[in-house]
From TrEMBL:
Keyword GTP-binding: no
Alphabetical keyword list: Cell membrane, Membrane, Transmembrane, Transmembrane helix
Source species: Marinobacterium zhoushanense
Localization: Cell inner membrane
Annotated family: Belongs to the binding-protein-dependent transport system permease family. AraH/RbsC subfamily.
InterPro entries associated with the record: ABC_transp_permease
Pfam families in the cross-refs: BPD_transp_2
Segments traversing the membrane: 6-27, 59-78, 85-101, 131-153, 182-201, 213-230, 237-257, 269-286
Protein name: ABC transporter permease
Membrane topology term: Multi-pass membrane protein
Amino acid sequence: MSLFSFLGTLEIGFIFGLVAVGVYLTFRVLDFPDLTVDGSFTLGAALAAALILAGVNPYLATLCAMFGGAVAGLLTAWLNLRFNILHLLASILTMTALYTINLRVMGKPNLALIAEPTVLSPFESLGIPNMYMKVIFVAAVVIAVGLLLAWFLNTQYGMAMRATGANPRMAQANGIVINEKIYAGLALSNGLVALAGALFAQTNGFADSTMGIGTIVVGLAAVIVGESLLNSRSMLVIVFSCILGSLLYRLAVSVALNADFIGFTTSDLNLITAVLVGLALILPHFRREWKARKAAQGGAA
């Protein structure tokens, strides 16, 4: 693997670290399986690209992209809570609608940002090569978001949100308005995913209507890999384990695609993804069995 490929892998790994954190919020914190992220990732990229091309400041465009993703999350929560639609179905409905909305936002299937200003433009005068600057900038954003999110989840409001996912009845019995926490959690989750989409579009120079396909799988894979490696009760460790899982996942995919002796090509990406996710799900099971066997042998002794 060349240095250029390695830096590109780190860049995408950090960006999808935001997706992993967003997926963790819904799947683990709120216990709300949410497939909206496949649409909100593209929505973030589409809004940022369309606004930048319209002459809007890239940072303002990125904030608008986050807001758009948050609205998508609110729509999924509203369908679920207001009309009692199953959470999976509600998120699928939103994701399906977003495909058309994204096309409307962009006006065509893809938009190019190669010659346009981006969030990286103010740092071009520093003289740092672009391939390094992109990784440094994205890593700084993701680490800052991770620290803020870990702090938030340890606040009173954040712990109430965690209680909502852990035991809704007990949370409601203790005066927590669970619907409010679900709305807030899905808005925050999809806002982070949309931020990832906006950053992806600006660092890679394009937005495409199909770029969000499979985002949920990548996010889940990162969460599962991170949890397998760092099993902790600390929210700071958990949040950064998701980011670490995303980096390791992208590195594993990159190594598999660049290993000539394996013979994989880019068309095999879905197969590689399925194998990696399967391994991430299976290995913790074997580890638990090994620990249980070891404990049984120790008790027998």
